[in-house]
Fold these 2 entries.
Entry 1:
Amino acid sequence: MKYLSPLEMLYKWEQKKANEIYLSQPIDGVWHNWTWKELGEEVRKMAAYLQSLNLPQKSKIGILSKNCSHWIMSDLAIMMSGHISVPLYPNLNAATLQKILIHSETKVLFVGKLDNYEVMKPGVPTDIQCIAYPFYTENYPIWDEITKCITPLSENIIRKEDELATIIYTSGTTGDPKGVMHKFFNFAFSTTHAVNALPLKNETFFSYLPLCHIAERLLVMMGSLYTGGRVSFAESLDTFASNLSEASPTVFLGVPRIWTKFQQGIIGKLPQKKLNILLSIPLISSLIKKKIQKGLGLSKANNIFTGAAPTPAPLIRWFARLGITIQEAYAMTENCCYSHVSFKHKIKIGSVGQALPNCEVKLSEQNEILIKHDALMDGYYKDQQQTAETIKNGWLHTGDEGAIDDEGFLSITGRVKDIFKTSKGKYVAPSPIEMKLSANKNLEQICVVGDGIPQPIALIVLSKRGKTKSKKSLVLSLEKSLEIINPKIDSHEKLKSIVVLAEEWTVENKLLTPTMKIKRNSIEKLHKDNYTKWYESGKIILE
């Protein structure tokens, strides 16, 4: 089967939808729009400029910015100019940024919408040429000024399907980021099959999760290119709700923390008891559901996804009562975000769905999830050993532990590498226990540990709601969680203590990855000396 590349899709819509709006971005509260024709013009001018720099063939060009229209423009311009993109998380610290830029041999860097570039700037080597996006100018040549007198490329550049398109540095829960290499074929294969399977046609998307992450890049950027859709952006956290409401996308992806915040916001305005009563009255129930969906900006959404981390089943059921059907998905950077999805009319809560077309899945003897299809990564950049350890005999070893039922629904049961051994010699998988604990809405972040002590303990950080509770109320709540959870798990897994930590886990203190996943190893190193003391101190410990 012949697959059209992202550039070929751009050329298609330049002709077919020249005057239709493709990108919409709020800047200081005012929406700025670019049609497909205007987008094409910007991309062609920047591609011509990049070619004029006479860089070595297939040079690496970085993108350092939060999501915005010029992020997508620069990615396409890099493709069109014959080079390779290196997308970077906009919240990296200077040391990690420098490490990636040097490792990838980046020659040019687009610098755009950032919260605190002054802190990151020392990580940018002085020999890298930087280009600033409009609206978010740093002390670099600005996109509009650079392209003002540039003649746009007139020809439709075609990149070969086996050419390297991008190097995506994973967020690294266990160590330094690794550069995942994907060729143009991988984007074309994954997006073509995904949009056909769901199916997606002429959709509207809302972009706020990092475009440098494979999920947003494939679903939103590639999804919009392959459906001829429209993309709207969030301006900031403060305007997120109003921007989402105005955009009213037909496709929406929310990580678990977003769904928790949505839930807390709804309950804050409409307490659970009152909501239960209103939902029990047929006519009122319909009106309430529509009002909540419209308030969230999801009244037109036909496909509503969650992924990146486990979403508690009670949370999915809670939204289902409001007429919001959340579809769990499962994939990773190494398989080009093409693996499993819950189809809207075939959802099994507790699973991450079924394999997408042309994707093989099986479990190893250790129940590790193994994936095989034609769009697996080409490997880790400059790291043959890690590549060989991750892809064996054509199968991607995900590191996730799972189970597959007789209908092909996949459930994630833990991490193969996360399993630890207690001093009793028993192995414990922390993820399922953490999922059970997450039902307590007083908890924001959870890490179950137990290496070297007789029974596991849970390290937790309180949610905004939990921080408002009195000490007595909080302790009772946590004791109740232990009473509910411990009888449901094996004796060697039973939690001895819950430790409430004062310090939050953030990207800045290097206890979260840029995609908001906990760095389990870092948390363990920080607190391991206290395990025995906490184990012996009782049920609930407030640090």
Entry 2:
Amino acid sequence: MRDGFFRVAAVTPEIRVADPVFNRERICERIQEGEALGAGLMVFPELCVTGYTCGDLFLQYPLIRSAREQLLKIAECTRDKHMLVFVGLPWEHGGKLYNAAAALCGGKVLGIVPKTYLPNYSEFYEQRHFTAGTDELLVTEWEGEQVPLCTDLLFRCREIPELVIGAEICEDVWSPCPPSIRHALAGALVIANCSASDETVGKDSYRNSLITGQSARLMCGYVYANAGEGESTQDLVFGGHNIIAENGTMLAKSKRFSPEAIYGDLDLEKLGSERRRTNTFPARQEDGHLTIEFSLDTAGMEEKQQEKLFRFIGSRPFVPDDAGERSRRCEEIFTIQAMGLKKRLQHTGCTHVVLGISGGLDSTLALLVTARAFDMLKIPRKQIHAITMPCFGTTDRTYQNACRMTRKMGASLTEVDIKSSVLRHFEDIGHDPAEHDVTYENAQARERTQVLMDIANQVNGLVVGTGDMSELALGWATYNGDHMSMYGVNASVPKTLVRHLVRYCADTCGEEALQAVLLDVLDTPVSPELLPPEDGVISQKTEDLVGPYELHDFFLYHMLRFGYMPSKIYRMALMAFSGEYDGQTIGKWLNVFYRRFFAQQFKRSCLPDGPKVGSVAVSPRGDLRMPSDASWRIWMEDLEKILEGAGA
């Protein structure tokens, strides 16, 4: 296991009903395949050693005995393997027959987990053959050894202490109080389910939601292996619908109606992080559970996992890949922003808003949000005071876009040329205007903020901030300049998402002329426009200075959302941005991100109010209570090891 990723598999082998020998051969073939691919956990279907559809043949001694004999050979198959395996079979103990899952590792049977809830409705009649398992610890005989038989068994890996696995069987997860709840509360981070769920119309959709929902509720990895090819079709058809889910996200699912194995890399660090940060998830309660330890050759597993991960790592974590979902998300976020501003206007009694309009992405989104809020309140848009403040770096393109956009949206446009004011300020403080340093740039930003605040006083209005979360994370804002406002509508919207929100508004505005302006804004390089243009074109491009926002948003999401080490974020970025950025480039900007993030916290410590729209935010009153003087040493030491190897 590397960087917390643990490979699991849900397998549907081809079987023959009541032929344990054939079934064992197919199961062992799949185990060999899983070993070659570096799987640390393999889950097979319910009663797969015999077949689920044996009916009254389960009462026959030859079938019961053959199942035990073949289990011995399956266990032997795991002797030199580096994995924990769950296989389903009928298990006799104390004169009763149990529908059970055997946990195998290193050539041994570690434990037998019986099914708790035996369905006896519709097409199911399991109580005819089996006895329900309980949390009472029984000891069963196996090849001269004592093996625990109990629903409440947990399996902990010695080499990966956080890897604790619990098991349940098919109907158990469909019940109102699944055993997996107890397992998770007792510390299980991964749940294995050996299942035989037949196919009826629409059942696959319900199964998808059930398994992903259970993984979300328990903040766990869930590996669901279903019966399929080879089961009797006398009355039922089994589709081999396998699912691997992680905290509400489906990592992999199988194509139904064919014997298939699916693989996925669970992120144990992510799951652990979610449980730590969610204080409503109780502390570990191990009462009643027996924990059995097993060993894995983690070095050997890691070597086989080097080439790729069996999970998708998106390069834009804030932006859904699916176009339909992206549109729904944009509408939802846009509405949250507008509702936040609407409430603030209602509470303060303000019917006027002042904002700086530059022709850039952030101020464009702020104007669009403000217009939506005014429409909700039925306040005339003329009372939105959009102020354009050209200065040394303003280009004709952004100026014209700002003006056209404001007019098309029905807001009031005011132009305040700040050149003379800034030059007078330079004279007052003795600064040479030819010196294009940080003073030259920030004086313009602070003058613009002063203008906005004073006009707000004139109209008894509220200054709406335009800065986004990506800029705040990097400290790319002038302290007490564009850093300050009376309500920051974009404060928790990352730059990559700002772009899609503006695009969404362009696509849905219904006005061709406004759409044309918004599309041109989207096509304009991101720039504060604080340095003089070259031949009328923007000379100061933000991403040339601080790095690509798509990289920084990726770093920000995985750092704040899950608390990952820089080395893990770097490795994930290599996969996510393969073909877009090389390792040296990613390492360079990751270094910039961490240094700026830690050094600029003092700016985030005094942010204006603004609505939270996603799971990551930097408000000092909500999601990020971080000291302004925190040391970044341990983060940088981890990063430097990676950068040395990458040559960055």
